[in-house]
Amino acid sequence: MDTPTVVSIKDVQKTYGKPNEKQYTALKGITFDVKQGEFVGIMGASGSGKTTLLNILSTLDKPTAGQVEINGQAINGLKGNQLADFRAKEIGFMFQDFNLLENLTAYENMALPLTLQNVGGKQVQDFVTSIAKTLSIDRLLNKYPTELSGGQKQRVAAARALVHKPAILFGDEPTGALDSKSAKELLDTMAQLNEQQRVSILLVTHDPFSASYCQRILFIKDGQIGQELVRGDRPRKAFYQEILDTLGTFNH
Amino acid sequence: MLLKLSLTGIKGRLKDYIVLFSGLIMASAIFYMFEALATNKSFVSSNSPIRMASIIFQIGSVLLGIITLVYIIYANNFLMSMRRRDYGMFMMLGAKGRKIAQLIAAETLVIGMAATLVGTVLGIGLTRIISNLLLSQMDIQVKQFSPFYLPAVIVTVVFFMVLFVMAAGVNQYQLLKTPVLQLLHNDQQPNHVSQNKLGQLVQIVLSLIFLTIGYTMLINVATYQIAGLVVALVTIVLGTYFLFNAFFGWMLRLLKGNQYIRNRGLNNFTLAQLRFRIKDYTKMLALVAMLFALALGAITVGIGYQSEIPAMAKTMAPYDVVLNQPNPQARQLAKNLTGVKATANYDVKEDAQTVYYRATQLKKNPIMAVQYSNDRAKGIKPVQLKTLQKGNVAALQAIQVPSQFSKDVKVVTDAEFSQIASGTIPIKTYRVKDFMANLSVIKKIHTQQVIANPELAKGQGALMDGSKYVNYQMANGMFSGLEFMGFFLGIAFLAMLASCLMFKILSGAASDVKRYTMLAKIGTRRSLLKQSIAKEIGVLFCLPGIVGSIHVLFGLQLFKQIMLNPYQNLWLPFTIFMILYVGYYWVTTWLYQGIVLKTVTQ
């Protein structure tokens, strides 16, 4: 049986600027799939189009041309509330700067995606406690974000992104604001989630170390996919070396 | 170059600047409106029967000045919250501190000055419109009042200039003192509020005790007099403060404790926002509640006087119309009176010393008189013939002309009456259901009565025409000035306090952008975000409104002494006030949504 595809993007283009102005094409026809349970990385230098791609995938921006399907549903036609609901159900987000609400406790932050869908109180509690255990933050539930370390905050953010069991987890440089130890712990956890719970992850990063946790890496350059690396059965260290080598040649 | 950069910065945030600018214009316009009344001594003194009025206006003036100061501080914070980043960037690019300081000063002063001038002109226009409206709507007589009044213009312009010079100074100082990095990253995220439970409990109890003492003083103001007023003022202010500092926080926690409320949509977020805000805004909300009470109180008392005037006239004359020796025109006009309850005819004869009445007529249609008990009018009752015959004839003055007041009165039999050798004067009295409804007819009749009895126009003091119409006119002259002032004061205060609240809320909006953007990203519907904002701001407007209204209900006790019924027609001022207040709420919500939701791409 084929593994289902959670993200499928086909020939996506994105052009900024009005027709009569100077136009800038950020994405020049990108095509790739993410299968369920995959851990895919997207790498590229600043200005390569990473962020534009992520914005389009996460339905925050619309492509100028091409199709985007998430969990089997085309998102091009969705509007307003449909888009918001779609994001709330199917997508989980992790941001570089955590984006936790400072005036809510860790528990309340994590419960937010569920209460948005008006899930009952008992169920909210079950889901939140179970994801908190998985991410080993179950002792921090009643703390406010200001009482947490960077690594703990990002774990809470990860829990918030996963609590409603989205089809895919998007990470936008989630380790960018963490020290190396916290970053490693977070990545280990993500890899573990991916392996044990079959969580599909799409990670956008320019950090080779973070990327080395992925199973497959797409390199973007000037709005196009320039190269693809697959880790296969190799140890992470070897993969890391290959990424470094690729980056050395790729960017020039 | 810097000036050019600065102007580009303003252009980029034109909408925010329009909000700020129109807010400042309103502030100076309102301030002018108020000063146009307060500084016009001849108006104040010629329109109020009590000398208190000019003191009331001076106090009002000081209060309005304080609110304006607070308002300018908030508006200024709003301005700075918009410009901090730009200034930080200029400094990072190497602009000298002194240059930036000049730029800040110039910007604050230019905006302030332009707003003040436009506002003063607008104020003159508004004063004209509102005074015309008031004058035409309610048969008000106002003397010595003109929309353009030079001293008021001067006071307004000078006052605002001083405020803006001060604001410019504060801005310079604050900006130059703050490190550049902090200017660039001014993400002061409000934190959660931790509260000491025991302290909160103590404050809740204190607030209730203080309010109880204050309200008791107001209710029993007759007993405690001035001391009671002072105690009430202090305890109510303190009580209000503690109420906002502790009580509402406690209520929000109760709401948050409710599973069902907490787990729906964004409620948890909204409640958390509110908890932070109410704590942060404690002084502000307490101030708004007090001002709300003052403003609503002023309008209520103003409108109260409006309904007081006919009521007052009623207690001074038992008959709505007395036709004394009427001419044919007056008789004709009297037929137009509507809702006539009772009429009576009396024949009168008089000589140099004595006025004669017929006992049979006075028995058949007893003369009516206003009954008093404890110095208060208690309705109109017939006077027994016996009372008149015993010599208590004061009641008869109601149907007399002034020159008869000092004459002897004799109540005689019909036979005796016919023997008196002088002409019979016919008198007819009318009592109608609704004096105000018949006002225009009664006014015409009165004019005819004066033609028929020229002495009516000359009488003064004890010899004054005692008819209801004249009494009405006198009360109207006395109270409509007060009514006008009440309205003006109320509207000026309301506009100021609501603007204060508006800017305080808006100046916090910039730091909320990130939160709402994040909520939108994780899939919150736009409508839900709007709802959350509407709820949050709604509560911030509602709480001081409710507290202020309760203060007013107790505060009206003060006017029991000088008004017949201060609680009459309470719905009218409350409705007018609510409409204006709700208007401010909508504008604030709309602007806030515009600020925090505009960056969300869909």
Automatic annotation (TrEMBL), chain A:
UniProt lineage: Bacteria, Bacillati, Bacillota, Bacilli, Lactobacillales
Protein's recorded name: ABC transporter family protein
Entry's Gene Ontology BP terms: amino acid transport
GO-annotated cellular components: membrane protein complex
UniProt-listed Pfam families: ABC_tran (PF00005)
Domain of life: Bacteria
Gene3D superfamilies per the UniProt record, alphabetical: P-loop containing nucleotide triphosphate hydrolases
Family in the record: Belongs to the ABC transporter superfamily.
Species whose genome carries this gene: Latilactobacillus graminis DSM 20719
From TrEMBL, chain B:
Keyword Cell membrane assigned: yes
GO cellular component terms, semicolon-separated: plasma membrane
Keyword Membrane attached: yes
InterPro entries: ABC-4_Integral_Memb_Prot (IPR052536), ABC3_permease_C (IPR003838), ABC_permease_BceB-typ (IPR027022)
Membrane topology field: Multi-pass membrane protein
GO biological process assignments: transmembrane transport
Domain ABC3 transporter permease C-terminal residues, every copy: 61-168
Superkingdom: Bacteria
Transmembrane regions listed in the UniProt entry: 17-34, 54-79, 100-128, 148-170, 201-220, 226-252, 284-305, 484-506, 537-559, 571-592
Alphabetical UniProt keywords: Cell membrane, Membrane, Transmembrane, Transmembrane helix, Transport
Cellular localisation: Cell membrane
PANTHER family documented for this protein: ABC TRANSPORTER PERMEASE, ABC TRANSPORTER PERMEASE-RELATED-RELATED
Recorded family membership: Belongs to the ABC-4 integral membrane protein family.
Name this polypeptide is given: Permease family protein
Organism expressing this protein natively: Latilactobacillus graminis DSM 20719
Lineage: Bacteria, Bacillati, Bacillota, Bacilli, Lactobacillales
